[in-house]
Amino acid sequence: MEEFDLPRRLAAEAIGTALLVATVVGSGIMASSLTQDTALALLGNTLATGAILVVLITVLGPISGAHFNPAVSLVFVLSRMMPGRDLAAYIAVQIVGGVLGTILAHMMFAQPILEWSVKERSGASQWLAEGVATVGLVSVILLGIRFDRKSVPWLVGLYITAAYWFTSSTSFANPAVAVARSLTNTFSGIRPADLPGFVVAEFIGALCAFLVVTWLLRPTPTVETAS
């Protein structure tokens, strides 16, 4: 398998996160402009997001790991699948890429370049939903890598498609995406004031998933008997 240097890995992370956010925000704008039915708009937003995740992870995964998510990058470091020295750079380019994705979506739909969201997403139920969403996402990634690496793009895309609907927060599960979505006052936005609760819940969820999966995959000690 070809090895890619850090600049190219960071570029892949920035591009992937930008395209992910552009899809989330852009499909939300498109859906809400085509229908007044919130459920139908959410369905359009969901399908586009799940589909782009399959594509981006498939084509960029071999370059950077296709994290597109600071919580996932943290878990990769804790799992020793990525050097700790790369973590800060990964998180920085993911956030920058996410913001660029919002700008790109706004430009395509003739929206203000950046605009603070006023969409309220707060409260214990929303934070719990984000924690659950992130536990599921990180667990799917770690277990998928262990048992069926080639299926990870589909596993992640399908999981996020489902999680949009079974969580009250519509499953951000990604601090970089949450930051980017605070800069769009459209269907997929989140108020900046609500960001801290989401980000904390996402990181806690990622750490919980890491601990649970590490325990699940821990080899069972074998007892040697004297012959």
UniProtKB/TrEMBL annotation:
The chain crosses the membrane at residues 12-31, 51-78, 87-107, 127-145, 152-177, 197-217. It comes from the Bacteria. Coiled coil: none annotated. It is a multi-pass membrane protein. SUPFAM superfamilies: Aquaporin-like. It is found in: Membrane. This is Glycerol uptake facilitator (Major Intrinsic Protein Family). Its main location: membrane. It comes from Rhizobium multihospitium. Gene3D superfamilies: Glycerol uptake facilitator protein. GO terms for cellular component: membrane. Belongs to the MIP/aquaporin (TC 1.A.8) family. GO terms for molecular function: channel activity. Keywords: Membrane, Transmembrane, Transmembrane helix, Transport.
